[in-house]
Amino acid sequence: MAWTYLVLAGLLEIGWAIGLKYTDGFTRLVPSVLTGLSMVASVLLLGLGLKTLPVGTGYAVWTGIGTVGTAILGIYLLGEPATAMRLACIGLIVAGILGLKLAAS
Question: What CA–CA distances, in Å, run from 15 to 36, 41, 100?
Answer without folding.
Answer: 10, 11, 23
